[in-house]
Design brief:
single chain; seven-stranded mixed β-sheet; Leucine Aminopeptidase, subunit E, domain 1; binds adenosine-5'-diphosphate; 7 helices; about 40% helix; globular; alpha/beta; about 210 residues
């Protein structure tokens, strides 16, 4: 047994020790619809795809969570383009469920699609329609621009309070419907920060 495996024996032991396993150790990945959809654990900012999706807020001026991480890692170009979009197209802010696209600055992806998820409990029962619109409109904008690989975070499930198991059903249904009607997309990656969130998503998805 080498030094590494002697020190770190099993994921189970690591969980018991409340330690975070090294990234290479948790290559947890599920695929659906013949590999068209991948559920992965990782950082959305690290995804090398045509477009990553930002769980933005309507100001498009950055924020916490995914939004903050994307602006931090991508650099000032993204904010500059967002400001221009606000000035020219959405002076009142980007409405919930709508999407816009910017370049990706220093990120490994080529573009960032910004969408505004619903705040759970604040849309008089239309939260699920609005959440589905985020996914559908992001995919639609991507293929309109010839982008075929796209990575999503779990929109609205952080600060916006959408329970992950409910969001899993809504988002997976929206993605599946879109893919069934549009053959251009080559890969949809759904990215979770924590393995427990990815597991919960896999339990509640309706891809199949
Ligand atoms: P919202 O405001 O739409 O709720 P958040 O950014 O607060 O969006 O969180 C959305 C989800 O993204 C949460 O489940 C959170 O754990 C997850 N998350 C936060 N940062 C990252 C990241 N860098 N990569 C992937 N997922 C992330």
């Amino acid at each position: 047994m080498d030094r590494f495996s002697a020190r770190i024996k099993t994921i189970h032991e690591l969980h018991e020790l409340h330690e975070r396993p090294p990234k290479s150790f948790v290559q947890m990945s599920h695929t659906f619809l013949d590999g068209l959809i991948k559920v992965v654990v990782g950082d959305i900012t690290a995804q090398r795809v045509d477009a990553i999706v930002n769980a933005a807020n309507s100001s498009l001026m950055g924020g916490g969570g995914v939004d903050g991480a994307i602006h931090r890692a991508g650099g000032p170009v993204i904010l500059e383009e967002c400001k221009e979009i606000r000035r020219t197209r959405y002076p009142q802010g980007l409405p919930t469920g709508e999407v816009v696209i910017t370049s990706a600055g220093d990120l490994p992806s080529r573009f960032v699609i910004h969408t505004v998820g619903p705040v759970y409990g604040q849309h008089a029962g239309s939260e699920s329609d609005l959440l589905a619109a985020c996914y559908r409109n992001s995919l639609s904008l991507a293929i309109k621009d010839g982008l075929t690989t796209i990575a999503f975070p779990a929109i609205s499930t952080g600060v916006y309070g959408y329970p992950l198991h409910e969001a899993a059903a809504v988002s997976s249904e929206a993605i599946k419907r879109f893919l069934l009607n549009n053959g251009e997309v080559q890969e949809v990656r759904v990215v979770f920060f924590r393995d427990a969130d990815a597991d919960l998503f896999v339990q509640h998805q309706c891809f199949e």
